[in-house]
Amino acid sequence: MDSNKVLFVSGIDTGVGKTYATGVLLREMREKGLRVISQKPVQTGCKGRSEDLDVHDALAPHLDPEQRAEPYRCSYLYKYPASPHLSAQLEQRPIDPKKIDSDTQELLSQGYDRILMEGAGGLMVPLTPELLTLDFIAQRGYPVALVTSGRLGSINHTLLSLQALQDREIPVERVIYNHYPPEESPIAQETIAYLRHYLASCFPSTLWQEIGYETLDSSSSDK
């Protein structure tokens, strides 16, 4: 499997906007003519169908996923809202990374140009007691889109995440700054300025992208 066919979308923390960012990327890539689909390997805190996949599809409604892809988009769904390893323990349904790999391969076999794989929480979230999300990504060589924001502490969390990715030689394709909720404070303004400067110095091949909730617009520039 070509690891570049999968873009893993992670965030500096939970609730930072990964789901929204994934939907925006999905829409952008489809508008460029790519046949692309999203995957949420592990979803906690809901039942029936992944709520995050619903958001992805709502943000990119002009090209609905084929029904034959649906069984492979979410490998594990748990009711209890917790870290994947804990939710799996509580429901006595452990996560098998090979099952996720199999579902990813099935989607690729259906002819998709790329899969946007949204993780659960941040990079250090455990999928199993022995396997961190970060290690899952590293073992497969997936590039990462890292979602950040302008809330207090974001610079620290972003740099720690970037360092962890660099230490495991995981390529950072892009850093996505989420403007929602809108914040015009000096903290948010400085966060953008500092992170752009840091990427230009330390991750010059990484794309900087900003997304805004109200307009669904995004602007990108190579750094």
Automatic annotation (TrEMBL):
Cross-referenced CDD domains: DTBS
EC top class, as a word: ligase
Residues reported in the UniProt entry to bind Mg(2+): T19, D57, E118
Residues reported to bind substrate: T44
Cofactor: Mg(2+)
Entry's Gene Ontology cellular component terms: cytosol
Complex and partners: Homodimer.
Protein name in the entry: ATP-dependent dethiobiotin synthetase BioD
Organism of derivation: Porphyromonas endodontalis (strain ATCC 35406 / DSM 24491 / JCM 8526 / CCUG 16442 / BCRC 14492 / NCTC 13058 / HG 370)
UniProt lineage: Bacteria, Pseudomonadati, Bacteroidota, Bacteroidia, Bacteroidales
